[in-house]
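Troubleshooting: if your tokenizer reports a length mismatch, compare against these two reference records.
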Amino acid sequence: MSAAPRNPQVDGSLALDIQPLIWGPPGAIPDERKLRHLGQALAEVLAGRRAPETVADRLTDRAYRELVRAGRMIQTNRTPFAGSMHVKEPREGAIEMCVLVHCGERNHVLAVRLERRGVHWLCTDFETA
């Protein structure tokens, strides 16, 4: 019996890793897979496909309030898919990423800033267009 085919449009979109975003000691290289999962989850929240509470532990209180207040910012009839990603570390303890979100006929860009709080990384701000 063969395994069911995987649909890359929803691969990894149903749940985030249970572990918080931890990359070890200061200066450690970020795990881009976890960043992509966070981008995917945020895109799903902004498209109304995921409850904001599912990412609350990965955002500061202010960023979480903004996410809830933003509501549905990405209009799409299908589940968004986090595609290509660009990550920069403008200073130690801060990461800025830009994710191309495929939504069918119109793609969106999601910009996210994360800051290290101890050994955890939390989203402090986001924008989409």
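Reference record two:
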Amino acid sequence: MSRNTLVAYEPVTSDGLLAAALDGDLDLDCADEVRDSLASAARGTGCRYLHVDVSRLTFIDSYALGALVSARNSAAAEGVTLTLTNPSQPVRKAIQVTGLADVFGLPPLA
């Protein structure tokens, strides 16, 4: 992955929640790897809910945002609800510009 971008996972809870966290820059260089990691986690862990904490993302580009949409769609195909939590300012701005709050399970961002 590119400069400091990391996906970290917590163990799946008894309620079927898998928590993941992204850290660093999420861009073209690592977006596909992050997408594949999230999709694989939704498919291979027995979770029903995948919450991705994006509070520590310092940068996100449009390609990476598309990769997160793709991961969300892959998770949905497995019956897993992927939501983003705690959007950092760069993520919040990208979601506002694209109007994707509903897609990621976020309330409308102001």
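Descriptive notes for reference record two:
- The longest strand covers residues 49-60.
- Residues 62-77 form the longest helix (16 residues).
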